[in-house]
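Sequence only, no structure available. Ideas?
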Amino acid sequence: MTNCSPLSRDDADPSPLPEIPAQLRAVLNGIPALVGYWDNELRNRLANDAYCEWFGFEPQQLNGLHVRDVIGDVAFETTRPLIERVLAGEAQQFDRTLVDSEGESRHTHVTYTPDARDGAVQGYFVVITDITERVLADRRRQRDMDRYRALARSVPGVFVLLFDAELRYLIAEGQELETFGYRREELEGQRIQDVLKGDLASELEPRYRAALAGREVSWSRQIGHRTYRLKAGPVYSDDDGAAAGMVVAVDVTERLQQQQVWQALHELATEVARNAAPEAISERVAAIVRDLFNVDSAAVVRFTGASSAEIVAMAPTLPPTLSRRQIFAPTDESATVRVAVTGKPALVVYRPEGGPAAEQMRAGGFQSAAAAPIRVRGGLWGAVSLTSKSRTGVTEAMMERLAQFAELVEIAIGNTEARTDLEQQATTDALSGLPNRRSLERHLAEQIALAGSRGTYLSAIVLDIDHFKRINDTHGHLMGDVVLAEVAARLRTVARTKEIVARFGGEEFVWLLPETDGAEALLAAERARKAIASEPFGEVGYLTISAGVCEQRDAEAGSLLDCADRALYEAKNGGRNRTSRYGHPTAAAREQAPGATDSREAQTTRGA
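Reply:
I predicted one. Tokens follow.
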């Protein structure tokens, strides 16, 4: 054999090498890898069957061949630097894609180990392990991980955690991860016991173990004002069970809030259908808003003028530092004032120099607020507001949600207002503003029932304007309407809160007095008579009224109003400008106002 450099090839046939003993070949063939030995002239000295089969040689053919003849010129040139280093005594490890005898590319891990004897390298051992399946599995796993990571990055309101059998995070990705309280860099590569705060690791471990065992587990978690729905489950499995698990967390705050809003609106719609009063609807709205937004207080405010408002309802209660009636300046730093001035939603943080409205809120301990407009029939009706005792307790996002909720509340309040207006129109006399005959009859039935069940007094007064026809004939019907409205106003001033003054028809009025006996009612009728007679009615001059009084216990022979009407007839026949009590013939007091006509000389016809 011609001497040459080991990294070049001697084209002459090499000297035959002794065959590998059968016992050694059996040992080599038992190794699950390709095993070969190359001397320092790069000629093969031994190889197991797997090595021979891979490169397509019989053992006798491979024995003595130069490495270039086995792996080809291209692979040899690529491998040359590694061979030089192993012959210099440095072990080499590397991954290499090799083509087997069937022309298939395989991924391998190659080890070159120098054979050093007596201080000189005699050759090197080659161990080639087929890692194709592992590489492909790793690639599939990486592809899946890339997909998970891309999915988590792209979907709003979501984050994804991928963990292995040791509960070590492989992926921690998603837009909501930091909201949950962690960053990707803190989690990836760390075991849950080493990185999670508090008792969270102990809480999560059984759920993660269940996912690794192939089961799905779901739960919810509240983080600040956000609510997350989490699901843990297996990602991929092999013969040994689940190799990894994944947690997907979805921010369901908006969905839950929307459900709460619709539930609240359903509740309001039910109240409206039950004919709840506007005040009751407002109270329910305030309570719902406080619960929905988890703030310290919420209110419904109605604007009563360009610079005034009234707190219709507040939850939990109106604090003593806050006045129900609000007078404000356009410059006041209040969320409600901002809505009144601009008609748009507003958010404020109260400052000491924010004006009287802000000062009242600060006195109650409140530091921030948001308000949104409520519009009814196209006009600015008022506002719904929420307040917090923290400067950061109200946010822009909360203000936007409040504005959306206010738009829906407008329907409930608008319907209630419309129904109330219709009811008022149906039960109120348009001219005088007093309850009409229909409303009076309902009130009368209620008061009679209450007096009967409680055993209390009930009295009625029927009043009539003296000589009203003369007013219409002399001054016209329009002036007659003005007189009727003024008489109604004066009667309202002498009636107590629980008493009911109604227009019965024409120039006749009825006054119901709960818990009042006949003697007290007679005095009340006298107050009314004096109130009418004491001041002139413009160009019409002084007027008088006549009144009939009846106590419910005296009205056994007929209805209460019929008996009071009989007493009125007696007062008219007695000379007008006087009162008469049914069942008590004693003459009532009579006082003639300055300038009033002596009613005893007037006609005695009722209604004249």
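Confidence is low (pLDDT under 50) at residues 587-608.
Hope that gets you unstuck.
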